[in-house]
Design brief:
The structure holds two protein chains of two kinds.
Chain A (H helix, E strand, L loop, with lengths): L1 E7 L2 E7 L5 H8 L18 E4 L2 E4 L12 E3 L12 H9 L8 H14 L5 H7 L11 H15 L1
Parallel strand pairs in A: 1-5
Antiparallel strand pairs in A: 1-2, 3-4, 3-5
Helix pairs in contact in A: 2-5
Chain B lengths: L11 E3 L4 H11 L3 E4 L3 H8 L7 E4 L9 E3 L5 E4 L4 H6 L1 H6 L1 H8 L4 H6 L2 H6 L5 H4 L40 H7 L3 E6 L4 E6 H4 L18 E7 L6 E8 L10 E10 L2 E10 L6 E2 L1 H7 L6 H11 L11 H15 L3
Parallel strand pairs in B: 1-3, 2-3
Antiparallel strand pairs in B: 4-5, 5-8, 6-7, 6-8, 9-10, 10-11, 11-12
Classes of the chains: A alpha+beta, B alpha+beta.
């Protein structure tokens, strides 16, 4: 058992985990944050995507002790209180979530994109989301929603 | 909901912060050791419980293995633990070695490029699914290749360089580094011994050792890659062909570096990966092009020369036409 300390959505968290745990297992089973999804668990779907020190990464393939002392942002950390993040609001308005399983990972990839590029082109958005599979929507409404959120974040 | 039980076999995790510590740990644990870089290939193996190392040595905290620096003689030195995203986005790489930036930028997905490292991409294991699924094939220490029987599914396997095993090297950065004539630096025996390998010699085929893809043996560490100084008048080409525009490993990829003398090609290197157990250096094709105009006619002749020894398996004869055309474009369209 190892004791790991990391910042999750702005809060200092401490968690006892086996050394071979992944960041995703720690979030879901150690800290009870089940927003990040365990899809393929192999890096083939992107449903577990979180933002680690500003970069979108696959939490299912991140050893937890690699995240020691670092800042993690998950889908639970996007909203401000009861106020949804513009990305979440635009996903709702555009019908960009259907079954919703891929949505937390896509929101995290999109949030990392908007933080580094406030005015992304359609191609930037496609590229930033190229590591997130969605089997329902066909992606177009997701791209529309990210464009809408980018415009609102700039305003 | 039921809690998904962790399926990874427990291991002892070591997190050295210096290269010396890492090398000492590798020497201490040797055959029981596993080098953890970005974790992408490693955790796939661990989760399938096919590889169960006793000691995992995580290089994530070894800062000296990260970063891109000016090397001796005007070249560039890239630490093995530099992320693929950093290689693809680095100004000096993009300016002087655009084919490497392109190759690194076409690996898998944005998330995987943020986590995955140059060293990991070079040293990764093959994707042959018989082998990855834990079948006791030659590569896994058995005495059969499941991918080369009359019933095998071998659309992704090799057309060149087979020796019992028909798996291919999947790395995108490997052919770029072969075309660039880079050098790989390997430290071994706790750091007592250091050796530089020409990129083409770093990768080995099954005829030399069927259980490894590279010269790296247990206890060895790839520390950095050195790119030679860029030469004026150089032209480049890189292309990766895959089933989907994201995620997939290449069906075939080509990298070329041409040294021009006026309109003609003075010298060149062409490398193709995804068609053999190692990135192939296409010397026969290079000989066709040397001294010629890099036009379509020369490209076509080079493509024909490149596939002269190719032998398809049951489901991959398309790779011969693919490789021929990639080499053709790598000569004709280099810019």
């Amino acid at each position: 058992m190892e004791v790991v300390r990391l910042t999750v959505n702005g809060d200092e968290r401490v968690c006892g985990v086996p050394a071979h745990y992944t960041l995703l297992e720690t979030l879901r089973y150690g800290l009870g944050l089940t927003g990040s999804k365990q899809g393929c668990d192999k890096g083939d779907c992107g449903a577990c995507t979180v933002v680690l020190d500003g970069k979108a990464v696959l939490s299912c393939l991140t050893p937890i002790l690699e995240a020691e002392g670092r800042h993690v942002r998950t889908v639970e950390g996007l909203a401000s209180g009861v106020e949804p993040h513009p990305l979440q609001d635009e996903f709702d308005l555009h019908g960009a979530a259907q079954c919703g399983f891929c949505t937390p990972g896509i929101l995290c990839s999109a949030a990392a994109l908007l933080d580094r590029e406030p005015s992304p082109s359609r191609e930037d958005i496609r590229e930033a989301l190229a590591g997130n599979l969605c089997r329902c929507t066909g992606y177009e409404k997701i791209y529309d929603a990210v464009e809408g959120a980018a415009a609102r974040c700039r305003a | 909901m039921a809690v998904i039980r962790d399926m990874i076999a427990p291991f002892e995790l070591y997190q050295p912060t210096g290269v010396d510590d890492a090398l000492r740990l590798l020497e201490e644990h040797r055959a029981d050791s596993w080098v953890l870089a970005g974790g992408l290939d490693s955790f796939d193996w661990f989760k399938d419980r096919i590889k169960r190392p006793a000691a995992v040595i995580d290089l994530g905290g070894v800062e000296a293995l990260k970063g891109i620096r000016e090397g001796a003689d005007g070249g560039l030195e890239i630490g093995a633990m530099t992320s693929l995203a950093d290689v693809a986005g680095d100004e000096s790489v993009r300016d002087a070695y655009p084919l490497l930036a392109e190759a690194a930028g076409l690996v898998a997905t944005p998330q995987i490029r943020n986590q995955g490292t140059l060293g990991g991409n070079l040293a990764q294991d093959t994707r042959c699914w018989y082998y990855r699924s834990g079948w006791p094939c030659y590569r896994a220490g058995g005495n059969i290749c499941y991918a080369a029987t009359p019933q095998s599914m071998n659309r992704e396997h090799c057309i060149l360089g087979a020796s019992r095993c028909v798996a291919v090297n999947p790395s995108d950065t490997a052919p770029a580094l072969v075309a660039l004539d880079a050098e790989m630096f390997v430290a071994r025996r706790g750091g007592e011994h250091q050796q530089a390998y020409a990129a083409a010699d770093f990768f080995i085929g099954p005829a030399i050792d069927i259980t490894r893809m590279t010269v790296l043996e247990p206890g060895d560490l790839l520390t950095h890659v050195v790119l030679p100084a860029p030469r004026p008048g150089a032209r480049w080409y890189f292309e990766k062909v895959r089933d989907r525009k994201s995620w997939d490993f290449s069906l075939a990829s080509v990298a070329s570096a041409l040294q021009m003398d006026g309109d003609r090609v003075a010298d060149l290197r062409i490398s193709v990966n995804g068609v053999a157990p190692y990135p192939v250096r296409c010397e026969a094709a290079e000989a066709v092009v040397r001294g010629q105009l890099p036009d379509d006619e020369t490209g076509l002749a080079a493509g024909e020369a490149a596939v002269e020894d190719a032998r398809p398996l049951r489901h991959n004869d398309y790779k011969i036409a693919l490789m021929r055309n990639l080499v053709r474009r790598a000569v004709r369209d280099a810019a």
